[in-house]
Amino acid sequence: MEEVKLHGFWPSPFSYRVIWALKLKGVKYDYIEEDFPNKSKLLLQYNPVHKKIPVLVHRGKPVAESLIILEYIEETWPENPLLPKDAYERAMARFWIKYGDEKGGPTFYSFFLSVGEEQEKAIKETMEVLKVLEEKGLGDKKFVGGDTIGLVDITFGWLPRWFECMEEVVGVKLLQPTTFPRLHAWMENFKEVPVIKENLPDHEKLLAHFKRIRESSVADTMK
Amino acid sequence: CWISGQALLGSSRIIFSVLIKNLRERDLQTVRQMEDNVVLLDFWPSSFGMRVRIALAEKGIKYESHEENLLDKSPLLVEMNPVHKLIPVLIHNGKPICESLIILQYIDEVWHDKSPLLPSDPCKRSQARFWADYIDKKIYSIGKRVMMGKGEEQEVAKKELIECLKTLEGELGDKLYFGGETIGLVDVALVPFYTWFYSYETCGNFSIEAECPKLVAWAKRCMERETISKSLPDPHKIYSFVLQLKQKLGK
Question: Is there a contact between A72 and B126 if contact means CB atoms under 8 Å apart?
């Protein structure tokens, strides 16, 4: 029984952020799969405010919200640092972590779940976000932080498997290598990192899961 | 005569070396102050700007404040925050830091020897970050709906705002401040919204104090600190600003 437990949900990119950080630091943990929508009593007890995963429980104390969990992991297990030491560089990293998280969610989900005019609007906004990441967020190094992956890369980490599946389900490819060469190169490098390669949800399983969500969302829109 | 001459020389040397030492220290201080050039791009009614004003005051940091006109953003703002073009932006020795909670953490890390905003224990730090994040996700957007909304929409927003403030009241508990005995990140993140309470209440025709007396008592306690009271504009000024905004938006 490990002193670190992670309550997660297999298709959630937010769960995977925490898995990647723990594995990169070599922290052993027990994983508890939450059976959505039937949230366990324990999850509701650990995260009464938002009632969401992921929740990290360390020595019985819960930490909720993936970005807050990432900072907690970084501070508790400082080996293999995932944030820069310099205060200014750290502030820059936090800026892009916040951007990747705030823009990543609503805009991209809107592209995935909507149809018609609403989807056109979402496509336009998604392209704008991708453009900002391409031109301002990534820089010229292999990863955002430099030669090794850090928390910013982890926060953008839902682009390779999750967004690719969304594009496949919707039938629209927005992240073209010719339009976003830096993003594309970053994604290829990211997927090759052993901890990432060995810890991704199964492509077919995720595709089927996303297909079900999209069908349900489109059906709701038609009502 | 020779002895007194030596004594004079000796004491002159001492005086001279003391003068040199003072000059060096003054030079060093001047250099440090020159090194620490701090500018804040701000907008007077912004709760997010107020957070940074409070943090800078708590740490005793001297800075230059630039008031931005958000309808006519300055080239400096656009250059320093090209992604969002929003205030607050802290410019430290020419380098910009954006997003208020990120700025607060930066200030806390660089000027770490005075008035810490975050505790040192990672678990307590994560709790503080959780509640600061909760405030960021809820108060501004719900408050806006209370002020700008009508009818059923406004009633729903009022209910949500009270629920949030009650949740925060629960987190405060019997503590003097969210930070414990002294103010911390959560206090600095939340207290600027206190100056907007009058606007929420007047637009929504309800009393926050009646629903959340402990929270209002906490806010009044915070306002006894000069670093906070001098950083927050008068609630009636905020309300005039809200009325102007509502007129412009035709609400």
Answer: yes
Taking alpha carbons only, the member of B212, B211, B235 closest to residue B223 is B235
Taking a C-beta distance cutoff of 8 angstroms, is the pair A138, A183 a contact? Answer: yes
Tell me the pairing of strands A4-8 and A55-58.
Answer: antiparallel
Please judge whether B123 and A91 are an interchain contact, meaning their C-beta atoms are less than 8 angstroms apart: no
Distances (CA, A) of A20 to A14, B16, B242: 10, 62, 45
Contacts of B133 in chain A (CB under 8 A): 65, 67-68
Helix (H) or strand (E) segment spanning residue B67: strand B64-67
Sheet with A30-33, strands from edge to edge, namely A30-33, A4-8, A55-58, A61-64
CATH topology of domain A87-222: Glutathione S-transferase Yfyf (Class Pi); Chain A, domain 2 (1.20.1050)
Chain B residues within 8 A of A69 when measuring between CB atoms: 126
The Cα of A94 is separated from the nearest Cα of chain B by a number of Å equal to 7
| Region(s) of chain A under CATH 1.20.1050.10 | 87-222
The CATH code that applies to domain B122-249 is: 1.20.1050.10
* Partner residue opposite A75 with nearest CB, options B122, B130, B134: B122
From the options 3.90.950.20, 3.40.30.10, 3.40.50.10350, 3.60.20.10, give the CATH code of A4-76.
Answer: 3.40.30.10
Entry pTM: 0.90
Opening angle at CA B242, ends B241 and B246, nearest 5: 120
Tens-digit pLDDT profile for residues A175-199: 999 999 999 999 999 999 999 999 9
**What is the ipTM metric for this complex?**
0.94
Q: List pLDDT tens digits, range B206-248.
A: 999 999 999 999 999 999 999 999 999 999 999 999 999 999 9
